[in-house]
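[Help] Beginner question about ligand-bound structures

Sorry if this is basic. My supervisor gave me a protein sequence and a SMILES string for adenosine-5'-triphosphate and asked me to "get the holo structure". I don't really know what that means in practice or what format the answer should be in. Inputs are pasted below exactly as I got them.
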Amino acid sequence: MSVALRDVHKRYGRTKALDGIELRVEEGEFFCLLGPSGAGKTTTLKTVAGLERPDRGSVEIGGRDVRDVEPYDRGVAMCFESYALYPHRSVYDNLASPLRSPRHRLPAAEARDRVGAIAELLGISALLDRPVGQLSNGQRQRVALGRVLVRPARAFLLDEPLSHLDAKLRQQMRAELKAIGAVRRTTTLYVTHDSVEALALGDRIGVIRQGRIVQTGTREDIWYRPHDTEVARAFGRPRINLLPGTVTGGGVFRSADGAVELPLAVPVPRGTEVLVGVRPRDVSLTGDMTGDGHRLAGSVYVTEVLGRSVEVTVRIGAQQLSLVAARSEAGGLRVDDPVRPAVRPESLLVFEADRPERPGRRIERR
Ligand SMILES: Nc1ncnc2c1ncn2[C@@H]1O[C@H](COP(=O)(O)OP(=O)(O)OP(=O)(O)O)[C@@H](O)[C@H]1O
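Answer (accepted):
No worries, everyone starts somewhere. Holo just means with the ligand present. The predicted complex, written as structure tokens, is below.
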């Protein structure tokens, strides 16, 4: 079932939690809602589940306005970050109890199969007889997720369901979550503040900030065409370089101290104050084999080993430019060594300068 929110507003006293949310999750789609703490992610989910009533705007499930539909009758299954489990009952009972509700009431054998399959996928088969109260936080979180995924639902609403797992398990579960048949077939709205998770999981991603959706798109849209500097900063580690400066005649970017000059592929009027963005992996330490790409002259400021590659921060006048190079290229570099990194004009993103009231928007290629 598709899920749509139109112009949804919600206030708690003086706090504007949702400020005109527009969102549409297509049938069967896995949609990630990404935003910082307090952005309104949980409130959005609660509004879909019917646990909060919007002050204005509408929520539709399967094309039907659900204003007057009770949470229980909406047919959505929600997993909260603060999970409600029965601590004295076994993992098996916690997983099976949703299937005993009058809504589902599956035959015992079928319920057992479903619970077994979900427990297997979540790696908790060995814990089925244990009381939930004796489990670790990460194990409990998997039980809570299982309680949601086990039931037949028209849509899953998942609120940071992997947040309590350690890094390794989180990565593993991330990969497995989308492979679960029920998840693959069922519309899923997944909330996270982790951009890596959003990029890994989302068929599409919605970026939420201060109760509004700033940008919706595929991972390619968000990565290559971020709406503004804040979206650009949110995705990618090491972070995108954003160099402040002005556009001179001939469409060349120039930093305030004149140390960095870069030809722009995007037409920008002369005199415009901009931030030029380039991702560290798009800066080449040794210059392109083909020789194209614009060269800059600087010196090594800091190097940091990131497994097989090295992050090199280069000082160019008053600017710092970070790049990622292979260890074979950058392994021997010392602080203050001169380097000539190269940047291709087509990998540059151009943004309006940030203003106090809002981050700089990307200037589009015409
Ligand atoms: N029941 C409530 N009463 C008062 N204020 C609330 C209530 N629920 C949420 N808020 C406020 O509404 C805003 C949005 O909260 P919400 O929980 O939706 O954010 P979030 O993006 O899910 O954040 P987090 O990642 O920290 O869970 C916050 O400023 C929060 O303090």
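A couple of things worth pointing out: The pocket of adenosine-5'-triphosphate is lined by residues 12, 15, 17, 35, 37-43, 193 (CB under 6 Å). The CA atoms of residues 251 and 267 lie 6 Å apart. Feel free to follow up in the thread.
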